[in-house]
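Instructor's aside before we start: the two examples that follow are unrelated to each other. I chose them only because their records fit on one page, so don't look for a connection. First example below.
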Amino acid sequence: MSNINRHSETSARSEEREIKFGTDGWRAIIGETFTFANVEKVSYAIGSYIQSAYGQNNPSLPILIGYDTRFMAEQFAERSARVLMAMGLNVKITERDIPTPCIAWATQAETTGGALQFTASHNPPEYCGVKYIPPYAGPATTDITVKIVANLKHCPEQIQLAAGDLQFFDASAPYMEAVKTLVDFDKISKSGLKIAYDALYSTSRGYMDKLIIDAGLEPVILHNFRDPLFGGGMPEPRPAYLKELIATIKAGDFDLGIATDGDADRFAIIDGQGHFFTPNQLLCLLTRHLVKNHRISGAIVRTVATSHMLNHVAAKYDLPLFETPVGFKYIGEKMRTEDVLIGGEESGGVSIKGHIPEKDGILANLLVIEMLAYEKKPLAQIWADLEAEIGVKFFQARGDLHLTATTQKLLLAHLADHPVQSLAGQKLLKIDRTDGIKLYYDQDNWLLLRPSGTEPVIRVSGEGTSVQLIDSLMVDFKRQIDEILKSDKTLTAAEV
C-alpha cells in the first residue's frame, strides 16, 4: 500500500500541471497551471478548432471573449484575444466582466464562431478557467472538446501575439431584453414582493439587480462589487457562503432571497424564513410553475444525480422525461434536439424553453420571483402544495470519497468487477452505469457514485423517500466501501 501511495502522490503532482478539460472546460490554479503560457496554448487550440469548424475563408466571423471577476481574468482574456487575432480571427472582447449566460446568448444573437469565457464558476478564488461556447449558445459537447484537446499537441513552440487595439462589445442590454420576454414583469411589479439579492461579488451585479428594479421592485443588495477573493469565501451559492443573506432575511421582512454563483449560471433561493431551498426542490417547483401558470409544456431533462421527484412531476403533468449524464452539456444537447420545457441539474443549473441551451442563474431567479407573484403564497407553502399533489416526499444525502486520482480509478475498477449486490439488507433492483455507478434500492431510492469533474473526490449522492431509509443506504454503502478498502491492499484508505 505504501508503494501505491508514493505512486499516487507523484501522479497527482504531475496531473495538477496538465491541461485537463472537465465537464465544463479547463480549470486550474492561477500561477501553478493556469499561466499565460498555458492560456496561449489553450487559446491556440480553440482557435484551430474554430478555423477548422467554420472555415479559414471567413476571417470576419466574430469570436467573442468574456471573463468573470477573478484575479487577472481580464488579463488572461486579453492574452487569449491577441493569440486569436494573430491567427487571423476577428475577435471582440467584453467591456467588463460578463455572466456566462449573457455571453452564451450573444454567440447566437448574431452569426459568430462562438465565445471563450474565462471563468472558474464556483471554484475557490485561487482558480481560473476557460470554456469554449459554440455558436449554438450552450456548453461545448464532448466531440468538440476532444478535438480541442487534440489540438493542444500541435501548438507551435512559439505562439504569436497580435499587437494593436482590441475590439470591445457589450451584450448586456440585448440579453436583458431577451430575458424580459420570458418573464411577466408586470405581474412581478404588481406583487410588491420584498427581495434581498446577494451578488456574491459575481458577474451578475448590474444584471440581476437592474432586472429586479426594472420589474418595479426595490431589492436590498449585498456584495455588489468586484472582489477577486470573494469576501474570503467562495462564489458558490449555498448556505455556507450565504450567511449574510440569510441573516438579512431573518432580521427583516422579506419574501425571498436570491443569489448567483461567480459567473451567474447557477442560482440559489432563500425563502422568507431564511431557509435554503435546494436546486432539486426548485426544479420541481419551476416545472410546476411553467405548466400551471405559463401554460406551456414539453419534456423535462435531468441528470442521473438529480431528484426523482421530477419523475413524479412529469407523470402528474404527462410530460416526457429524459435522463442524462452529469454535466449541463448533455442537457443542452437534448434542448437542441427535443421539445424541452425545462432542463436542470442538482448543482443549480437550469434553462427553459425559448431560451439558450445553457444554464442561466439570472433567469432562474426571476422565474422564482415570478412564481411567488403568481401564487401569492410563501415559497414553503407552494412547496407543501406540490408535495401534497405528488403524494410522496424525497430526501437527499451526500458524502465524498477523498482519494487520489489513481486510487479513484482502482476503486471504480474494483466495483465494476465486483458490483455492490445489496443495500440495507435488500437486493438491488438494478445498477445503472450511464454516468458513474447508480445503485437502485427501488425506483425512488438510490445512491450514485461518480468522480467529480472539478475536484479530486468521488461524489456519493443519494435520495430516498424517508430520512431513515436514505441514511441506512448511505451507512451500509460506507460500511461496504470500508471493507473493500481494508481487504484490498491495492487501495488506499478513504473517507466518506
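Example two begins here.
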Amino acid sequence: MFSKLHNSCWLIALLLIAACQPTPQPMTATAKSDPGQPAQPEWAKNAVLYQCNIRQFSPEGNLSGVQQQLPRLKALGIDVLWLMPVHPIGQERRKGSLGSPYSVRDYRAVNPDYGNLDDMKLLVRSAHELGIRVILDWVPNHTSWDAVWKSEHPEYYSRYNGDFTVPLNERGEPITDWSDVCDLDYNNPGLRRAMIETMQFWLRDVDIDGFRVDMAGLVPNDFWQEARPALDSVKTTFMLAEWQDEPAHFRSAFNANYGWKWKDVTKDVAAGRQNASSLDTLLRFLDDFYPEGYYQLYFTQNHDENSHNGTESELYGPSADAFNVLAFTWQGIPMLYNGQEDKLNKRLAFFEKDPIEWGEYARTPFYQKLIALRHTNQAVWPGKDGGKLVKIPTNNDDAIYAFFREKNGDKALVVLNLSKVSTAFSLRVPEEARGAYTDLFGSSTVQATAEMDMRLDPWEYMVLTNK
C-alpha cells in the first residue's frame, strides 16, 4: 500500500530539499539494543532484503515456485526474504480478477492460490536451512469486506457515520480509493488481543522471523508498544514499518522504517529536478528527525513503485546503478525487488497474474559485489552499527556526491557523479580517509590522497573498500 507523505514536517523538508555473506548467525541470535529501543536480531546489522511478489515470482505463482528459487537467492547473497501477504484475498469489492494481496480475508490461513499452511512452513524451513530469514508482509490496519473477523467480530471494525468504512487517514477521513478494504478499530481491546495472538501464531507455529508492517502509522503507536514485548516473548522479532512520519516507532516496536523520502529525492535527482547536494539536506533532516542510530530501508523499486509508478528504467533511466550503489552504501538497509537482478523491464500487474519473464539474471554480478561489501565491511552497515557518514567536499558538489565511512577499522569511500554530464572535479580527502583501497568494480588498487583530480562519466561511480 502507498505511504502518505502529507504531514507538514515532510512538506517542509521537501521544500527545503527542492531549494537546495558471512556464515549465518544462529537463528535465535539477538543484538543488544539501546535503552528504550526494541531489541533486534543480530543478523539485521548487515542484512540485505529481497521483496518477493509471490503471484508474479514464478510461472506457478505459488509458494513452491518461490521455494524452488531459494538456492539462486542464496547465491545472489540475500539475507532476508520478504514475502508479500500470503493470506486469502477477499471476494467482496475485489479489484481485478485476483484482487489485492493487501485485502486480507483470514489472517491465520494461506491463499489457496499459493498453497497451504504446510507449504508455507516448508518454505520457511527450507529458507532457514540456507541461512535465509523470512519476514511476512502484515496488514494490521484493515481487512477485506468479507473477512472472517468481520462476520465473527463486527465490533473489531471502525464506524464512519454509523457504517463500516474504508480505511481512515491520519485526519480520520475515508481513503476512498481503498474501496476493497474495511477499517479496523484499535479502540477495541479484543481486536488488540486477537491481532497480537495472530502475529504470535506466525512467529511460533510457522517460525517466520519478523514482519514488514503495511501502513504502520495508521495503527496507534501505543498498540505497537503493547505488541512488541508479546512478539519478543516468542522470538526476537525484526520489525519494519512502512511509514516514515513517526519517530516514536523506533521506541515502541520497530527496528527500521521506510526511506520514502530517500526514494523521492533520488528520483528527483535522476530526473534533474534536484541535484546531488539535496542529499546533504535530506541527511541533515533525517538525523534531526529520528533517534540516533536509526535504520531506514532504501530501494529503487518495490511493488508499489513498479506496478503504479514505473520500472526502474522508467524512474531512474541510466542513473539506476548509481542509486543502487548509494542504497547499499549510504546508511540504511538495502532492498531488492524481485526481478532487479535480471533488470526487470516491465510493470507487473497488481490485481492479475503477470509472471516475471526471467532471462539470464544479467544484473546478478553487480548485486553480488554490493552484497558482499555489505557482509564484509562494517563501515557500510546501517545506522548505529555502521560508520558515520562523512561528506567529502569537492569543487562541484551539485554534481558529485562523495562520502567516507569507517567502523572498527573497516573503511569505504564512495564517489558518484549524480548528473547527466561528464564531470571533472577535485576531491578533498580528509586525513582519516586517506590510504590504499581496492576498487569494488575494478581490479586496481587506488591510493586516496589529500587532493585527487578526477573525472567521472554521467552517472558513473567508484566504490573503494579496504576489505
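Confidence is low (pLDDT under 50) at residues 1-26.
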